[in-house]
Amino acid sequence: MAGHAVQAAARQSNGSKESKASVSGRDAFVLYDTYGFPLEITQELAAAQGLTVDLQSFTQEMQVWTEGEQTG
């Protein structure tokens, strides 16, 4: 099931004009935040499919989430 989530995230992300197929940081964060799915496993599954995970945008999503938790 998790592999399917990574594949679906990659299909959505590949609609952008990136040169290398990747899972967006936002999609990786949704897997983490909503389902408790570890980033490391998302990266491993993505790598097995020849994909990468956009760590920069994942980190940005995490920072936004952390700031929201501190204020709310």
* Chain-averaged pLDDT: 85
Order of helices and strands: HEHHEH
Give the proportion of residues in helices: 55-70%
Low-confidence stretches: none
Number of alpha- plus pi-helical segments: 4
Shape, per Cα inertia axes? elongated
In terms of DSSP E residues, the strand content is 5-15%
Largest sheet: 2 strands, parallel
Task: Compute the separation of the termini in Å.
Answer: 33 Å
| Number of strand elements | 2
Question: Rg, please?
Answer: 12 Å
Helix/strand class: mainly alpha
> Main sheet: which strands, in order across?
1-2
**Integer tally of domains:** 1
Structure write-up:
The protein is mainly alpha-helical and 72 residues long. The protein has one domain. Helices cover 69% and strands 6% of the residues. It contains four helices and two strands; from the N terminus they run H-E-H-H-E-H. It has helices at 2-13, 25-35, 39-48, 55-71; strands at residues 22-23, 52-53. The protein has a two-stranded parallel ribbon. It is elongated, with a radius of gyration of 12 Å.
